[in-house]
Specification:
single chain, mainly alpha, AhpD-like, 7 helices
């Protein structure tokens, strides 16, 4: 049961978050890659609502069952490209921050595939899904109801 329903959320709160989503969506980054980030971060945070949502979005985009079921163990599988692996490592590290400076061994591989502007968008994508995960964990929106459009 939801703790906080959609109707309880302050007017404008989700709309402001949606503006950031629109900014990310309008970037040149591959939409499927962005969804892969969102699924992985949601798995790491244990957000059932967001895992359901981003699984469905990836499935709709044509992602395979093998890759979808393997995102949680991406490091141990051969199913992800070098570019995807760099992004997934970045997402993992940025989601669970340490008290030390962000490691070069996580950041530098991104430079092979992305411009600094694109790395900024990747960073925003990761921070944004972390925010959504935290909101959904508190609000307890019911997983399973999301429909990919």
């Amino acid at each position: 049961m939801e703790r906080i329903s959609y109707g309880d959320i302050p007017t404008g709160m989700f709309q402001h978050l949606q503006k950031l989503e629109d900014f990310i969506k309008n970037s040149d980054l591959d939409k499927q890659l962005l969804e892969l980030i969102r699924l992985r971060v949601s798995q790491k945070n244990g957000c059932a609502y967001c895992v359901d949502m981003h699984y469905k979005e990836l499935k709709k985009a044509g992602e395979t069952e093998l890759r979808l079921s393997s995102v949680c163990v991406w490091e141990e599988t051969p199913y992800f490209s070098e570019k995807e692996r760099a992004v997934l490592a970045f997402a993992d590290a940025l989601t669970k921050l340490k008290r030390t400076p962000f490691p070069d061994e996580i950041y530098n591989p991104l430079l092979k595939f992305f411009s600094k502007e694109e790395i900024c968008i990747l960073t925003l994508t990761i921070t944004q899904i972390n925010s959504w995960n935290r909101l959904m964990k508190v609000f307890l929106f019911t997983p399973g109801n999301y429909v990919a459009t």
